[in-house]
Amino acid sequence: MKNLPRFAWAGTTCIAIAMMLSAASAYQKEDKDKNSKESDARPKLMLKAQPLMAIAPARVVFTAELVGGANDYEEFYCPTVEWDWGDDTRSESNSDCEPYQSGKSEIKRRFTMDHSYKHGGVSPLRVLFRLKHRDKTLVGTSTTIQIRPGLRDIGE
Predict the structure, then answer these.
(1) Within this chain, do residues 4 and 80 fall inside the same structural domain, yes or no?
(2) 78 and 107 co-located in one domain
(3) How many domains does the chain have?
(4) Between the CA atoms of 90, 45, 100 and 82, what dihedral angle is there, to the nearest 10 degrees?
(5) Domain identity same for 70 and 139
(6) How far is residue 21's CA from residue 110's CA, in Å, rounded to a whole number?
(7) Phi-psi category of 83—alpha, beta or left, where left has phi over 0 and alpha has psi -120 to 50?
(8) Overall pTM surpassing 0.85 (yes/no)
């Protein structure tokens, strides 16, 4: 009987520790769910090229697409679009947009551009696409293509 208070104290301590661990686990799950929802709200960027392989001179059509996320995701509203074509050339464009209004303004989800490659050679070429706000890159992705030398390239 002398040991009963010690066992009772140990049992109470175990219960208290179990309750703290349970609360911490629930808090971590809630925090993880919150972060997951925030990351789910951010659109993902994909880039495709058609064709992936061509003989110079070649025209390749690139399509970048924002997938998922909210249609009014403010950070991606009215971005500057930058293309790095992989052949030492770049292009950049930005739009004139109305001021952002939550719930009303919609982000542009599809960006299509074609580029002409006059010469084949060093392959593969890495083509980069970026969405920017001022000097800050919001999101970027890349794809690779191959442009093989054509008849014009043989004489050079």
Answers:
(1) no
(2) yes
(3) 2
(4) 0
(5) yes
(6) 46
(7) beta
(8) no
